[in-house]
Amino acid sequence: MALGYASLLSSPPLRLPKLAATKEARPLIEALRIKVFEASSDSHLQAACNLRVCSFNNFPQTYRIEEHQQYLSAIELEALKEKVEGKRPGFGKVTCVVATVSSRFADIDQKIALLCKLTGIADGVVEDQVVVGSLDLNRTPRLPDEMCGSHPQGVEGQYRRGYLSNVCVAKAFQRNGVGTRLIKYARMLALKQGISDLYTHVAVDNESAKRLYIRSGFVLEKEERASEARLMGRPARLLLWTGLSNC
Questions:
Q1: What GO cellular component entries does it have (predicted)?
Q2: Per-residue H/E/C for 17-72
Q3: In a domain, 22, yes or no
Q4: What is the torsional sign of CA 152, 155, 158, 159?
Q5: Contact 100/132 with Cβ under 8 angstroms?
Q6: pLDDT, tens digit, for every residue of 91-137?
Q7: What's the structural domain count of the chain?
Q8: 18 exposed, middle or buried (CB, 10 Å; 0-12, 13-18, 19+)?
Q9: CATH number, domain at 232?
């Protein structure tokens, strides 16, 4: 019986076997040759949107749920393309970053094989790569409906402030360095774009995400009030900041 989005989300992270052919045994994930890059093709953008729908929604096991997932992914793709092209109101320059692994490892586990099917186009792969992580780098003084950072102040904040959003890693590949690689690449890209202060928002109860950001150099700047979060219909969030001058 094929697994669905909900079962993939609820399954524990994949325990990958060890390699014995090297001097020091290392997780097999290190052999997958993770690639992190700016997504520019429609295929990579679509795969990123499929992964986001999978990561940010809990779907019940109901009849024809896949059609609903495809519908949500199409909406997400339209919004993402508008952002990347600079046509989305309220957003500045937006760059989509993706992390991929080789599809030839898709038979390691049933969950990865399913991931290939869900997060790619047609046969589940894009140029022999499976998208397993993604984020958006937003060069903008603020994100719509989010807490606004305060660094840098003055007119500089209009041009040198950036935000990370839609950060996600496929469940089967979490705790294997994919998120760290994504953020490291985003920091480098932000510097090239003239960003000096980088922000992100994280739910107060998302412990794994908070650990990831702290390891990546982010510190707490502001906490959203519970009453404000209720008005937005979401859990309270933390605003995290990191400076890029020393990275």
A1: chloroplast
A2: CECCCCCCCCEHHHHHCCEEEECCCHHHHHHHHHHHHHHHCCCCCCCCHHHHHHHH
A3: no
A4: negative
A5: yes
A6: 999 999 999 887 665 444 455 555 555 544 333 455 677 888 999 99
A7: 1
A8: exposed
A9: 3.40.630.30
Helix (H) or strand (E) holding 167: strand 161-169
Residue 9 counted as domain residue = no
Whether omega for the bond prior to residue 27 falls within 30 degrees of 0, making it cis, is no
Structure tokens at 3: 């697994």
Neighbour tally for 243: CB within 10 Å = 14
Domain presence at residue 38: yes
213 in active site:
yes
State how far Cα 165 lies from the chain centre: 7
Is residue 18 domain-resident?
no
Of 163, 185, 199, 213, which residue is the catalytic one?
213
Task: Determine the length of the chain.
Answer: 247
What three-state secondary structure class fits 6? helix
- Look up the domain containing 123 and give its range: 27-243
